[in-house]
Amino acid sequence: MIEPSKVSEAFSRVEDENYAFRAYLKNHADEDKLDKQFLKLHNELFSDYDCNKCRNCCREYSASFEENELKSVSALLEMTEKEFKDKYIKENMGEYLLNVKPCCFLMEDGSCTIEPCKPLSCKDYPFTNRPERLWSLLSILTSSSICPVVFEMLERLKKEYGFRKRRRRY
Hints:
mainly alpha; 6% strand; 3 strands; three-stranded antiparallel sheet
């Protein structure tokens, strides 16, 4: 598995190939089979991966909170919901987004201050174990530039499909 600090650079080297692979999958992959492949890889690769040693996602994305998650996080931080929202949240069309990046709840050791009530958007990232992956390949490509596990998933899928980017001839 690629080192977390090197995933962005590695992604840059295969970015065009990954977009070509996305197009290939859109035109050739069976949706159910692809979901099973992603789920299998997700379970296999995350089973022994310690996300606390990476946390690129916490540095690159802004967490989003469901309205029903605000109360438990506020209580954990010993503040009112209003105080929590005023201090940490920017509301955008009904979405509650953390107003800072990297995440202010990320600790130096990779742990999370709000772990007991971390939002579902954080718990479920990178969403590769969910169905309908064929329709979210663009977000998966973006995640592969941040998450070493998703990067590895795409590399393995390219091998499974025998995919190699064709070189243009001039």
